[in-house]
Amino acid sequence: MKFILRLLLTALAVVLLAKLLPGITVTGYLSAIIVAVVLALLKLIVRPVLVILTLPITVLTLGLFLLIINAVIILLADAFIDGFAVSGFWIALVFSILLSIIQSILFSVLDTDND
Asked: PANTHER family, per this entry (predicted)?
């Protein structure tokens, strides 16, 4: 149940950011839910592989390269989903940073409600 609620909150954040950022388009709420599911799957499967492969540069940049990995995951989701479009790498980077911030705020509210 908590996983489904997190997916819906992520979809809400995707819709909100699509309205705020000029380079992000989402065709509808169903597309936003699909984006949330695909992002969850990509972060579960692809992100650990990319982190291991880029470990030396991640250590060298003190972890800042993880932001680049997150942007690449956003661009991969753009390639997989027809109703979701990202205009470029820098927009994907800004989108991933803002999505992470919004998710951390929403998920912290979600976790405090269960205590």
From this structure: SLR0284 PROTEIN
